[in-house]
Design brief:
This is Putative acetyltransferase. 40% of the residues are buried. This protein is 29% helix and 29% strand. It contains four helices and seven strands. It starts with 5 loop residues before the first strand and ends with a strand. The longest helix has 20 residues. The structure holds coenzyme A (COA). The site of coenzyme A has 22 residues, from strand 4, helix 3 and helix 4.
Length: 171
């Protein structure tokens, strides 16, 4: 059974609650070598709050922060999608190294698709799914996304960080 995770939308919190969550994000850690696949979690959350097209979320499990992810509108081409607007871009996704391998990544990726569908229903952006790019040499990332129902849409060579797989999940 997949574990329960909650996505906490930082954009919707008041300043105090946001600060508490950002403090927890600052404690998240990656395993050695994983920095090549994703940025610093606190910086990504702060950048997400600055940019109106991004919605940064803290992944919470068992009552504490376990990771982060961001949904972005109007940017799907960054993952090798043919247009920017028909899909949400999922980016900046990580689970703390001490809690990896417990199904949280898979559960959080599924929750991100559900959250994106709700955003589209609320905001009317017309997206029909979620797209992301994952490094070809990142089997943990690919595995978590496949288990969450994403489908491999092929090779994407447009990233500065090497060959990627474009993966898509419809709502
Ligand atoms: C990618 C990441 C979010 C996955 O999170 P996770 O909580 O460890 O993933 P899950 O436990 O849900 O694993 C789901 C599936 O992924 C696969 N998987 C997980 N870790 C793996 C590894 N080290 N090697 C190969 N496959 C792996 C497995 O198929 C697993 O299913 P299983 O439990 O039935 O074996 C996490 O490894 C991470 O934060 N990595 C660093 C940042 C990163 O790479 N982000 C993605 C950028 S696109």
């Amino acid at each position: 059974m997949s574990p329960d995770v909650w996505l906490i939308p930082l954009r919707d919190l008041d300043a105090d609650a946001r600060a508490i969550h950002l403090g927890a994000v600052a404690e998240l850690e990656l395993a050695p070598g994983q920095q090549e696949f994703v940025g610093d979690p606190l910086r990504m959350m702060l950048a997400g709050l600055e940019d109106g097209s991004r919605r940064p979320y803290v992944v919470e499990a068992g009552g504490r922060a376990a990771g982060v992810l961001t949904l972005q509108s109007g940017a799907a081409r960054l993952a090798g999608w043919p247009d920017d607007d028909s899909a949400w871009l999922l980016r900046g996704f990580l689970i703390d190294r001490r809690r990896q391998g417990q199904g949280l990544g898979q559960a959080a990726a599924s929750a991100a698709v559900a959250a994106a569908a709700k955003l589209t229903a609320r905001l009317g952006g017309g997206q029909t799914g979620v797209v992301l790019s994952v490094n070809q040499s990142n089997p943990a990332g690919q595995g978590a996304y496949l288990k969450a129902g994403f489908v491999d849409k092929g090779l994407y060579l447009g990233s500065e960080t090497g060959p990627q797989r474009t993966m898509y999940a419809p709502f």
